[in-house]
Amino acid sequence: MPTLISSQVTHVREDLATVISMISPEETPFVSSIGKTKATATKHEWLQDTLASANSSNAAVEGADSSDSTLVSPVRLSNQAQIFTKDVRVSGTLQAVSTAGTSDELARQIAKAGKEIKRDIEAALVSANPSVAAGARKLGGAEAWIKTNAQHGANGVTVGYSSGAVGAVTAGTARALTETMFVNALQGIWTAGGDPKKVIAPGTLKSKISTFVGGGTKQQNAKDKTVYQAVDVYNSDFGTVDILPHRFMSTSTVIAFDSELWNQAVVRSLEKKELAKTGDSDKFMLVTELTLECLNEAGNAKIADLNG
Fold first, then answer.
1. Which pLDDT score is estimated for 10?
2. pLDDT, tens digit (0-9, with 9 covering 90-100), for 17-68
3. Which stretches of 192-236 are DSSP H helices?
4. Is 72 left (phi over 0), alpha (psi -120 to 50) or beta?
5. Which residue in 49, 209, 280, 306 could disulfide with 74, CB within 3.0 to 4.6 Å?
6. Is residue 241 a contact partner of residue 286, using CB atoms and an 8 Å limit?
7. Residues of 272-287 as b/e, b for ≥16 C-beta within 10 angstroms?
8. For position 161, what pLDDT does the model report?
9. CA-CA distance, 123 to 146, in Å (whole number)?
10. What local confidence, expressed as pLDDT, does residue 224 receive?
11. pTM
């Protein structure tokens, strides 16, 4: 009598794992490091002031009357609040049937949408997007704000903040990232009075930074058979910065920033809103509204138009 094997029968249970894997990245290094404040209007405004330049000739004659100093008023800056949304719609049948990996597909989809919005916010805040006041409002991203210490390829231009709006960035001729460019960016921040703490770079450019040698050499630990190839901390004459890979920023830009000079200004915190029933499904909307507050763009730097 022949042996009965599994492929000849119809009642073998399917082998479906009970865990749903999500490998999509969720890191938000920029949002996680900057401050958070409250916004109360769709056009969020704040004030910026600077100290007068140091004057080594500040000397007075003994007994002289005081003289009038030239005082400068604070500058008013603004950015548009952007509305971020995600819709989740799950049928009644899907909620009722048995599903692998979750006992509540609606709750799983809502949690997933929340993670997706956080990634969208991170991408918008570090972007070169100009601010848009009409229609679907958009906030001006960090790359569009940074003008004073912006290194571009030929014909590249950063307008920065002007006449109540954050302008668009014009791309220049692409060129390779060098260690000299990197150090010059940190020096520019220091010269402006800033204190750079972090650098974010897309994967390819993070790898390029890891080829910088500075004043030292990379190490190899023969004992535990570990090679330290990456450069995660760069100690320069103008400050020590942590270098972080970033998945959602422009692939041709490196940004050095002082986290104390940026705030996420929130009009509405992330909310889950149930939508009206129009049939046999459950519908929810996740929504938040916020913008990016740049306290002083000169205390940051960017190197744009890079191709590796």
1. 66
2. 555 555 666 789 999 999 999 999 999 999 887 777 787 778 888 878 877 7
3. 203-209
4. beta
5. 49
6. no
7. eeeeeeeeeebbbbbb
8. 96
9. 16
10. 63
11. 0.87
Q: Are 300 and 142 in contact (CB under 8 A)?
A: yes
Which ranges of the chain have pLDDT less than 70?
1, 3-25, 215-229
* Helix (H) / strand (E) containing 109: helix 105-126
Tokens of 75: 């500058």
Residue-level pLDDT at 26: 72
User: What's the CA gap between 10 and 163, in Å, rounded?
Assistant: 72
Residue found under tokens 């990379």 = 218
| Among the listed residues 33, 43, 18, 14, the one whose alpha carbon sits nearest the alpha carbon of residue 290 | 43
Cβ atoms < 10 Å from Cβ of 23: 4
Answer for the pair 287, 83: CB distance below 8 angstroms, yes or no. Answer: yes
Strand partners, 151: 303
Q: Within a 10 A sphere around the Cβ of 232, how many other Cβ atoms? A: 13
**Buried-exposed string 213-225: b where 16+ CB fall within 10 A, e elsewhere:** eeeeeeeeeeeee
Q: Per-residue pLDDT tens for 164-201?
A: 999 999 999 999 999 999 999 999 999 998 998 999 99
- The pair of structure tokens assigned to 269 is 């915190």
Question: Does the CA dihedral 129-79-153-308 come out positive or negative?
Answer: negative
Q: Are 69 and 53 in contact (CB under 8 A)?
A: no
Residue 61 in tokens: 């004659």
